[in-house]
Design brief:
Blueprint (H helix, E strand, L loop, with lengths): L2 H13 L2 H4 L9 E2 L4 H11 L3 E6 L3 H6 L8 E7 H12 L9
Parallel strand pairs: 1-2
Antiparallel strand pairs: 2-3
Length: 101
């Protein structure tokens, strides 16, 4: 980035909050860690998104066993289409061979 552009952008970046630029009433789609891959792909496709936060949710039995502790979901990371494709290729041991012309 040239010095002129960074000089212009720095004050703008420092003075702009995410609240100023975020779309109003965005719904965050989360993916629970124990869902089948088919359900994850279906959810991502339905929402027209490529990635989502991966959370560890609780089953009803887990919540019933808790002693007044917080039963909110825990963020584990993010899952995206690339992760799924890599895992499927690795699992099925698909070999991609170059095409010789």
């Amino acid at each position: 980035m040239s010095a002129g552009i960074s000089t212009l952008l720095k004050p703008l970046l420092e003075s702009t909050s995410l609240e100023d630029i975020a779309s109003p009433k965005q719904h965050v789609c989360t993916i629970e860690h124990n869902l089948p891959v088919a359900d994850v792909l279906r959810t991502l496709a339905k929402k027209n998104i490529l990635s989502a936060p991966l959370i560890a949710g609780f089953d009803l039995e887990d919540v019933a066993d808790m002693d007044g502790t917080d039963a909110s979901a825990s963020l584990l990371g993010w899952i995206d289409i690339a992760d799924v494709v890599r895992a499927l290729i690795k699992r099925t041991k698909v070999l991609i061979t170059p095409i010789h012309v």
